[in-house]
Amino acid sequence: MIDSYDRNINYLRISVTDLCNLRCKYCMPEKGIKKACHDEILRFEEIEEIAKKFVSLGINKIRLTGGEPLVRAGIITLIKKLSKLQGIDEIAMTTNGTLLKRYAKALKEAGLTRVNISLDTLNHEKYRTITKGGILKDVLEGIREAKKVNLTPIKLNVVLIRDFNEDEIVNFINLTKDEEIDVRFIELMPIGQVKDWSLNRYVSNENVLKRVPELIQIKSKDMASPAKYYKLPDGKGNIGLINPISCKFCGNCNRIRLTADGKLKACLHSNTEIDIKGLIRAGQDTTEVICNIVKHKPKEHGLEDEEYIEREMIAIGG
Ligand code: SAM
Ligand code: SF4
To answer: Which of 90, 97, 215, 273 could covalently link to 117 via disulfide, CB atoms 3.0 to 4.6 Å apart?
Structure first.
C-alpha cells in the first residue's frame, strides 16, 4: 500500500494486550490504567482476521507488542497462525524479556523471527527502580535463551533518561564490541499521564555521540528503520539512535498500529484512531477503512506543537 507521500506501508504493529508484568515509570501511569473488560480486547480470531486482510493488501512484516505480549495466554498459538499467512516475511516481537527464558524456544518453533528486548539499565537496583519491581536477572537469562534459539539479530531498546542511565551509555555500547547485537537508544517521548515525568527527564540522543565520538555512521539495512545506525571501529554489533524528538524520522515511516482494543493508528503521535473492532464484529469488510487510513496517514508527527497524546504508551505498544 502506498500512502499520499509515496511511502510503502508494509509493516503492522499489533498490540495484543494492555497488561504488563512491569510498571516502567515512563510508560505506565502511577495509578495504573483502567483495566479493559474482556470483551473490549480483540480476540485472537479477530486479530488473525485483521492481520490476514492487511497481508492481502501488502503488509509483509508484523510486530507483536503490548503491554507485555508474553503475558497474554495463547500468544504462541497466535504466532503459529500469523506465521502461516501467505505473504508474511517477518514476525517480530517487542518484549521486556522477563518471560523469554520460559518462552523463547516455543516462540521460535511457532515462527517468530526475532525479538527486540527493552532494557534501560544493566544495574540490578536501578532496574528494580525504573520498572517498579522487575528483576534484571530474568531479562539477562531471557536474552541468553533468545540467542540460544536464534531469535536473532537481537535488538536491545534503551530509553535514555536524564540522571538515570546517561552514565551507562558506554557500557551499553561496549556490548556491541564482541557480539552481533544491536543496541538502540530511544529518546524519551512525553505521552499519556506520565508526560510531565518524561518531559523533565528527556535527553537528546546527541549525548550518545558526544560520549562516544569514535562511533562511525553506517548505512541501515532497513531503509524504513526509524534508527540512524553507527558502529564502533571493529565492533560486531550496531548502535541505533532513534530520535523522535530531536530529529523526526517520519519521511520513511512504513507502519500502521493496531491497539489491543481494536483501534487503528496511522501515527504514534496522533490522537486519531479508527475503530476496526466494530466493523469486524458487525461482519463488515475492512478493506476500505484500511485503505483510507493508509491514504490519510499524516506526513509527519507534531510533537513540537505539544499535541497531548492521550493514550498511554502501554496501550499503544511503542
Ligand atoms: N512491554 C514490551 C517492552 O517493554 O518491550 C512492549 C511494549 S513497550 C510499550 C514498547 C517500547 O516502548 C519499549 O521499548 C519501551 O521502552 C518503549 N517506550 C515506552 N514508553 C516510552 C516513552 N515514553 N518514550 C519512549 N519509549 C517508550
Ligand atoms: Fe510494560 Fe513495556 Fe511499558 Fe515497561 S515499557 S511498563 S515493560 S509495556
So the answer is: 97
Using the mean position of ligand 1's atoms as its centre, give its distance from the Cα of residue 134 in Å.
Answer: 15
Domains within the chain, CATH numbers bracketed: 11-312 (3.20.20.70)
CA distance 154 to 107: 14
Nearest CA to ligand 2 atom 4: 24
What is the rounded CA–CA span in Å between residue 76 and residue 109?
9
Cβ(97) – ligand 1 distance below 6 Å: no
- On whether the CB atoms of residues 126 and 136 are closer than 8 A, the answer is no
Query: Would you say 274 and 293 are in contact if contact means Cβ atoms under 8 Å apart?
Result: yes
Nearest ligand 2 atom to the CA of 20 is 1
Range list of β-strands (E), 33-154: 61-65, 90-95, 114-118
State whether residue 163 is helix, strand or coil.
coil
Answer whether 68 contacts ligand 2 (Cβ < 6 A).
Answer: yes
Q: How far is the CA of 23 from the centre of ligand 2 (A)?
A: 6
pLDDT 10s digit of each residue in the chain, 318 long? 999 999 999 999 999 999 999 999 999 998 888 888 999 999 999 999 999 999 999 999 999 999 999 999 999 999 999 999 999 999 999 999 999 999 999 999 999 999 999 999 999 999 999 999 999 999 999 999 999 999 999 999 999 999 999 999 999 999 999 999 999 999 999 999 999 999 999 999 999 999 999 999 999 878 788 899 999 999 999 999 999 887 777 888 999 999 999 999 999 988 999 999 999 999 999 999 999 999 999 998 765 555 678 899 999 999
Ligand at minimal distance from the CA of 22 is 2
**Encoded amino acid at 318, one letter:** G
Report the atom number in ligand 1 closest to the C-alpha of 116: 5
Ligand 2 neighbour 237 (Cβ under 6 A) = no
Residue 291 assigned to a binding site: no
Angle (nearest 5°) at CA 103 between 12 and 317: 30
* Residue nearest atom 11 of ligand 1, based on CA coordinates: 318
